[in-house]
Design goal:
The chain has about 190 residues and is α+β, with helices and mostly antiparallel strands. It contains three helices and six strands; from the N terminus they run ββββββααα. The strands form two sheets. A four-stranded antiparallel β-sheet has the order 2-3-4-5, with no helix packed on it. The longest helix has 23 residues.
Length: about 190
């Protein structure tokens, strides 16, 4: 396909979103956020976690007077509707320096690693449990068959005693069981 002067051309677009709009929500102070929710390793491309949608959002205007979160949406791309997040265009106040943030992050990592258990100790067995487990481990298949045969004999004895009928038509301490059915007549 050849390009002619009659072909439409795409309009040049700005490389960044530049808007003077600012959110009416209170200013975000970096000292009030968790150090793990801020990334200032590359100050030109600083990012932080939006407290409304909990996604990492870049900070615009790092060389200008006003720094703020970029406008962003709540839903995931191609999955949800494009709904603007409340935290968009929210001002950010840099009340800590990059070395202070780095020290706070190091302290948080040290504290978190000290809380984590290094080894998991197994729960101790009671003496009865230990004895049962040792006895179970020492049993052989012949011993298990002998126990099973003994259980079968006990079951057979119980079944045969259940089949025996008592002498007489009623138990010794109860009234006699009626032999004819009762019918109500009107």
């Amino acid at each position: 396909m050849t390009i002619t002067s009659a072909m439409p051309r795409a309009k040049e677009r700005k490389t960044r979103t530049r808007t003077k709009r600012v959110s009416s929500l209170p200013v975000i102070k970096l000292s009030r956020l968790l150090p793990s929710h801020i990334d200032l390793r590359d100050p030109a491309h600083a990012v932080l976690v939006c407290e409304y949608c909990e996604t990492w959002c870049p900070i615009t205007g790092m060389q200008s007077k006003v720094q703020k979160l970029v406008p962003h949406h709540i839903g995931k791309a191609d999955e949800a509707d494009a709904i603007r997040c409340r935290g968009s265009n929210r001002k950010i106040e840099f009340d800590m320096t990059i070395p202070e943030w780095h020290q706070a992050l190091t302290d948080a990592i040290t504290e978190a690693s000290s809380r984590q258990a290094t080894t998991v100790l197994p729960k101790a067995f009671s003496p009865q449990t230990d004895q049962t487990l040792r006895a179970r481990a020492q049993r052989t298949s012949a011993g298990r068959m002998a126990d099973w045969n003994e259980a079968l004999r006990t079951v057979a004895d119980t079944d045969s005693s259940r089949r025996l009928m008592p002498a007489g038509d009623a138990p010794a301490e109860a009234p006699a069981v009626p032999q004819t059915s009762l019918r109500i007549t009107r």
